[in-house]
Amino acid sequence: MINIFRTFNPLNIFWLAVLLFIMRAGYVLYAPEKVQLALAEPFVKSMLPVSYADTVSPGFSVLLAGIVVLGQALLLNYLINYYNLLGRPSFLPALMYIVLSGLFQHFLVLSPPLICNFFIIWLLFKLLDFYKAEDAKTTAYDVGMIAAAGTLIYLPFVYLMVCVWIALIIFRPFDWRDWAASLIGYATVFFFIAVFYYLNDRLNHFYQIWTPLGTPFTGIALLDKYDFLLLIPVIIIVILGLFKLQENFFKSYVLIRKTFQLLFFFFIIAAFSFYVRPAFGLSHFLICIVPVAVFFAYYFLYASKRWFYETLFFLLLIGIIYFQFNTF
Question: What is the pTM of this model?
């Protein structure tokens, strides 16, 4: 299967859709009657002039999530190929994104972290523009607004502003105006939120948006003991990908080296931003799969022993599907 997606063939979009359906069909069979539908933070939902149901059927939620995942996978694939981050075009980033987005059952329904991956991909498009831009202030302002928009959907996204500043360090010589522009862009979005609160005589509640940032951490929704088995091939692939990247690191273009450094920090910051939530679910880690999918794609593009990498990918894929069709 890997060799099929190593080539840049538009027909692979069809196979991506087929794989997406296969990986999600098992959940629909064993899902509860209703699943929660959350598309934004509560303070944003209260501002909307329309309301939507808090729960929907699992089939409908999985369908919406599947459409979102396929769109995000193609956008990520376009990003990687546009900047030639893997050295040659392929559909491996899209394949890896779809596989990782189905890793756990919590990933299969529509959720704010999944929606935020659109903003992460958009951020990466903008941040990579820092490399060749003569004047980055406009782009810095834009990425600040994108980070703020993601925060409206999912509050832990606020910490990805740190990724914006790390990108400025990696890609740009220091200029305080670039940093200020990113902060002004972020503040612009919440300025209009504050105006809305003021016009509705609720300005005294504006600070409550940020109260979860200071809430003590209370717990984590743990994986099922069987789900830990799925992490074994994931960890193996990540380690092999890092070794493969290390082999070719100094042979790569400067943009590629800098981008993989940024992706590493993206993963670390996104993973540890769970602390914003007093109690959170595994769906939070959906915001980590964009950088992981790129590392996966890098390994499978340059791996040489076909029997090994095909077997490893097959075990991961079968494990995901198996645990969805078995509730134990």
Answer: 0.90
